[in-house]
Design goal:
The protein is an alpha/beta fold and about 350 residues long. Helices cover about 40% and strands about 15% of the residues. The protein contains twelve helices and twelve strands. The strands form two sheets. Strands 2-1-3-4-5-11 form a six-stranded parallel β-sheet, with helices on both faces. It has a six-stranded mixed β-sheet with strand order 7-6-8-9-10-12, with helices on both faces. Helix 10 crosses helix 11. It is elongated.
């Protein structure tokens, strides 16, 4: 009789405290078992918690998966952004479009998780709260502690876009090095031999890979590989403006600039035109990404189109297959780009 009085009455929305009382364990024990940390306890204790969850019909956070085998049918879209400005980032927005398109088509919804705190423990709690069936980490920083966490978590994870290497997780990425090599080879083929380059931060994996591709093409063509022909920026239009003028002042004979992305390319065109320097008659400009604005600027921008929406779709496909079949994709999925030729490059 006493045991029955100590157990909570069943109701539609039981709390974690009621589950703990029912199982005669602490709230922390219930939480740990719900988050897959069964090995901290005896098999009997873990099963007692699961039994209490089933008996009371408890669902953590009202949306998380229960221990009855249900799924949330929700995928996490994870971005580490110190300033949380996802909607201002065209690259991320297009990745999200593709991720969302594929997920919705097969009956999944998306939870957007923007991490702004440097604490790995706080971030882990945001990701591993039972509210999603799987996670996609999009363009994580090279030194992100979440990559280490993701390699050992029970939750299916895929990494997409500018994937740091080495990476033991399922991954979807753009062939930056191959694309940059194609761009550099093409512009050399247009008769240019005095070519500058405005890179992204070389601490970023995508920027380093693009630099490698360009330098490989330059080396094969016997062009100058010195750093005086390189300006390291941060993929911003401001750095594109500063970089273009800096390169031209250091190398007056410069005839072309390969920019690390379209924002830098648009900044370079603006800066040159403001100084009365014709694009492409005097200096040709080529970009990367094929943003919407690339075809509206004058002159229209020649650029390497990244399949960003396709990368998002592929990430969702790999993740959902892992969730529903248990099959983990071990391959590195590299997508190719397309060179879009417009009016910002002159054949010399």
């Amino acid at each position: 009789m006493t045991e029955m009085l100590n157990q909570p009455a069943r109701r539609n929305n039981p709390t974690i405290r009621e589950v703990a009382l029912f199982a005669d364990v602490s709230i922390a024990t219930v939480s740990n078992v719900l988050h897959g940390k069964d090995t901290l306890y005896t098999a009997l204790t873990a099963e007692r918690v699961r039994g209490a969850v089933r008996e009371l019909g408890y669902r953590p956070n009202s949306v998380a998966r229960s221990l009855v085998g249900q799924r949330t049918k929700t995928l996490g879209f994870v971005v580490e952004q110190p300033h949380g400005r996802l909607t201002r980032n065209s690259y991320m927005s297009q990745l999200l479009d593709g991720y969302l398109e594929f997920s919705v088509r097969v009956g999944y919804q998306i939870k957007i998780i923007t991490l702004t705190n440097s604490s790995c423990e706080i971030n882990r709690q945001q990701l591993d709260d039972g509210s999603v069936d799987g996670l996609a980490l999009f363009a994580p920083p090279q030194d992100s502690p979440l990559l280490t966490w993701a390699s050992s978590t029970r939750i299916p994870v895929v990494v997409a876009g500018s994937v740091p290497q080495p990476c033991a997780l399922p991954q979807v990425d753009f062939d930056d090095e191959g694309a940059a090599y194609r761009v550099a080879t093409w512009i050399i083929g247009q008769g240019h031999c005095s070519i500058g380059r405005i890179t992204g931060l070389l601490s970023q994996w995508s920027a380093r890979r693009r630099e490698r591709g360009i330098l490989r093409a330059f080396q094969e063509a016997g062009l100058d590989l010195s750093d005086t022909w390189r300006y390291e920026g941060d993929y911003s239009s401001c750095c594109g403006e500063t970089g273009a003028i800096s390169l031209l002042e250091a190398n007056p004979d410069l005839t072309a600039i390969i920019c690390g992305n379209d924002r830098a390319a648009l900044g370079a065109i603006t800066a040159l035109q403001q100084r009365g320097i014709s694009v492409p008659d005097t200096v040709s400009i080529v970009g990367f990404d094929d943003m919407d604005t690339a075809q509206w600027i004058n002159p229209k921008l020649t650029t390497m189109r990244q399949p960003m929406s396709e990368m998002g779709m592929k990430a969702a496909e790999i993740l959902i297959r892992h969730i529903e079949t248990g099959i983990r994709d071990e391959a590195a999925n590299l997508l190719s780009g397309e060179l879009i030729i417009r009016q910002s490059v002159r054949n010399r």
